[in-house]
Specification:
single chain, alpha+beta, six-stranded antiparallel sheet, 8 helices, 2 domains, nine-stranded mixed sheet, 15 strands, D-amino Acid Aminotransferase, Chain A, domain 2, binds 4'-deoxy-4'-aminopyridoxal-5'-phosphate, D-amino Acid Aminotransferase, Chain A, domain 1, pyridoxal phosphate
Length: 284
Amino acid sequence: MSRIVYVNGEYLPEEKAKISVFDRGFLFSDGVYEVISVLNGKLIDTRGHMLRLNRSLGELDMAAPCSAVEIESIVKKLVAENSVEQGLVYLQITRGAADRDFFYPENPSPTLVMFTQSKNLLDDPNAEQGIDVITVPDLRWQRRDIKSVGLLYPCMAKMEAKMAGAKDAWMLDADGYVTEGTSNNAWIITQEGTIVTRQLSNDILHGITRKAVMALAGENDFSVEQRPFTPAEAYEAAEAFVTSATTFVMPVVKIDAAAIGNGLPGEMTGKLREIYIDMALRTE
Ligand code: PMP
């Protein structure tokens, strides 16, 4: 059955949905996006995603085609139209179609596109087994705080991981510290039980799940430090994990050649995953 997708004011069967070849999202990656997960037909942390969307737009001086409230109601309608019980909504805003010119157009007419993907997020075999990651240099641009659609380097890094038989890659800055995963925030738990993740800056995406997990860790009296860490420190960690909207808290059991802890998903990681999912399922 064909999905219903949203394109610039219309709800269309996916085969009918079209975007101009002059769209700046296509020509210049001049666009931003959000991915919101859906559990039991309900959107998780829509507010956080809308705030970040607004911030990404602001940083790029990009106009939205409608208000955040309207975007939110389109998202909800699309989830209902497609009967998504579990999965995600992808939404993208670009600066729209214009004659090809590096300068932003004076009267842009932004493009808004959304589609859903049904997917079992809760029973993810990766969460049972944990994933392995390799480390690669972080060769992305330096405004990683903007959730732009320019994702070619993360694609290249994921392919490098796949070629190496791993599931994902953690990227390293010029000083050798981990920035984040290709599509997630990276965390370790030290042998002393301190949860460590890199502090917010332009070096990483300000993950919505990162923020929620940080708050939940605080409420549960876990100690959290926001600072950079190296792969060498990570190899010696008791546990490691990544966070993102669609994977929640995902255990990492191997980094490069090093098994983390006993090579199985960590206990605290499991607890964080559980409390995050509990909180998400209570979403109204
Ligand atoms: N970092 C990067 C580079 C990402 O692409 C993502 C996922 N979009 C994240 C972190 C996690 O962010 P969130 O928790 O908001 O999904």
